[in-house]
What we know:
- The protein is an alpha/beta fold.
- It has 2 domains: 27-53 and 294-402, Aspartate Aminotransferase, domain 1 (Alpha-Beta Complex); 59-292, Type I PLP-dependent aspartate aminotransferase-like (Major domain) (Aspartate Aminotransferase, domain 2, 3-Layer(aba) Sandwich), CATH 3.40.640.10.
- It has helices spanning 6-19, 59-72, 80-84, 87-100, 111-122, 138-147, 159-168, 191-200, 223-226, 256-265, 267-270, 277-292, 294-313, 333-345, 375-402, and strands at residues 29-33, 36-39, 42-46, 104-108, 129-133, 150-154, 174-179, 204-208, 236-240, 250-254, 325-331, 348-349, 351-353, 363-368.
- The chain has a 7-stranded mixed β-sheet, with helices on both faces. A 4-stranded mixed β-sheet has the order 1-2-3-12.
- A hairpin with a 2-residue loop joins strand 1 and strand 2 (36-39).
- Helix 2 (59-72) packs antiparallel against helix 12 (277-292) and helix 5 (111-122) runs parallel beside helix 6.
Amino acid sequence: MARPDLHERIQALRKLRSAQGRIRVRRTVARRDGVRVEVDGRWLTGFCSNDYLGLSQQFEVVAALQDAASREGAGAGASHLISGHHALHEALEREVADWLGYPRGLLFGSGFIANLAVQQALLSEEEDLCVQDRLNHASLLDASRLAGCRLRRYPHLDAEGAMRQFKSAPEGAAMLVTDGVFSMDGDIAPLRSLSLVARMQEAVLYVDDAHGVGVVGPQGRGCAADAGLGVSEVPLQLVTLGKALGGHGAVVVGEETLIQHLAETARPYIYTTAMPPAQAAAALAAVKLARRDDWRREKLTALIGQFRDSARRHGLELMASDTPIQPLLCGDESTVMAMSASLENAGFLVSAIRPPTVPEGKARLRVTLSALHTPQQVMELVDATARARDIVQRQQHVAALRA
């Protein structure tokens, strides 16, 4: 029997995506200036970045990057366990761990590979179990599959559902894994309830707080701190450096024994070149600013409130989020794509999120706010979104009449 032709398969899959309106297109940013970006020769006000605190272009952060690069060069030259582990890496790990109140941290090149490292290193047997929220980030779900453990998923935010999944598979070592802030909905996991489930089931609770640290909780210490939980309840946490901290990479913080095990056994840590020291210097500067500058979070909170109040007045369909992630539900793919295009014509860059990233019928505009936005920009965005909705609804009504 002949093997399937991979080129034919690829063409068929792309044809299907095209028919469903799900072709992904990269947009090239030529220049950035605060929240403004130049795309295809036009300057647009961006509302789709995860740079929540506005640190990616902050003077002290950029200066730290440039200064370290002039002294240390462009790269680390080797993996952490060979000769690539730099004093700047060490300082960054300690600063993040101290900020979040954990004994130790371990630096990774990205949150995706950090999540893979954690599960591969800790859930190495076939009978091991990982119980996850159904809406967890793809990196967490893929990590379970690549680790080879059993994956069980519970309904979104449902701690009782998590308990049922544990009871259905009582053998093997276990982890309970959740996002802190969910990246497409903007809501927050019920960590106190989940920590109780983990304790009752003798499972390690691991929180991927990519979108929470820097924004949520006292001093921006994240969702676990906001819930009054510490290392005893949440033995492992993921902190990404590319969201509120404006840079690149990730740090896993946790109990000393767990972090040491990751450093000695995690394949994505052992077998990859360390982050450039200059990038670590920039991240270190950003962490110090995030710890110090409460005004950034205060301004962000005010902008979130303004956005939600204004969106309600215009009758836009909000989701239950008090974070900088503010999705506006649009329904089907054609509607959200038309609204995103209308907003771009009005001078705003807002991402249209479609299945399979979100469930069928739940396509949305994913608006993200930054401390760099002004109240005027937020007001203009909401006004433009309401106009875009009205225009698309009229066009759809006319098309229905003609049909």
